[in-house]
Design brief:
- Pfam families: RGS.
- It is a single chain.
- This protein is mostly helical.
- Helices cover 74% and strands 0% of the residues.
- The termini are far apart.
Length: 192
């Protein structure tokens, strides 16, 4: 009969957990891109020029749906997706006009990202945490500005440069370039 997992060597279990984690990340990333492909107009897929423009700034990349999805997939693979989630939550919070909704979102953001042992706790210093906690009582659109700025700078100086060197980004730019070549070849054939 089967003796169960306890009979396996611990290094096998650790390797299996690592493989499972990478598989989950891969499948989630694939779902993100599939969701974009289904919801977006094919013309919104990045051209090679657009994908190369993502190198100019983090803002340009985050403004493009495919750029955002690619960066999210990359961060997920590095277990730092909470940084982007926090930044996006802050952007949404700043756009909220209703004081009641803003207060609710402020508390949710704090409990999800700032509180010690929060489910998606971001890595900010104690002073920033303390300052943000004090600003939380104001419920104005600037409550999270300092923390959001620190996380943006962290992504811009740390994760973003690694993303631009990643296989994910390099493959994306190659795919965009190959689509252009295919279209130009088919255009030439149709003209002859």
């Amino acid at each position: 009969m089967c003796r169960g997992l306890s009979s396996l060597p611990s290094n096998c279990l650790e390797r299996a957990k690592g493989i499972k984690t990478r598989l989950v990340i891969f499948l989630q990333s694939k779902r993100d891109f599939t969701r974009i492909k289904k919801s977006e107009n094919p013309k919104s897929r990045p051209s090679s020029d657009e994908a190369r423009k993502w190198r100019e700034s983090l803002d340009k990349m985050l403004a493009h749906p495919y750029g955002l999805a690619a960066f999210r997939a990359f961060l997920r693979s590095e277990y730092s997706e909470e940084n982007l989630d926090f930044w996006l939550a802050c952007e949404d919070y700043k756009k909220t006009k209703s004081p009641v909704k803003r207060a609710s979102k402020a508390k949710k953001i704090y409990s999800e990202f700032i509180e010690t042992d929060a489910p998606k706790e971001i890595n900010i210093d104690f002073e920033t945490k303390d300052f943000t906690k004090k600003k939380l009582l104001d419920h104005n659109s600037c409550t999270y500005d300092v923390a959001q700025s620190k996380i943006y700078n962290l992504m811009e100086k740390d994760s973003y440069p690694r993303f631009l060197k990643s296989e994910l980004y390099l493959n994306l730019t190659k795919q965009a370039e190959s689509r252009i070549k295919q279209h130009s070849n088919s255009d030439r054939r149709s003209q002859t």
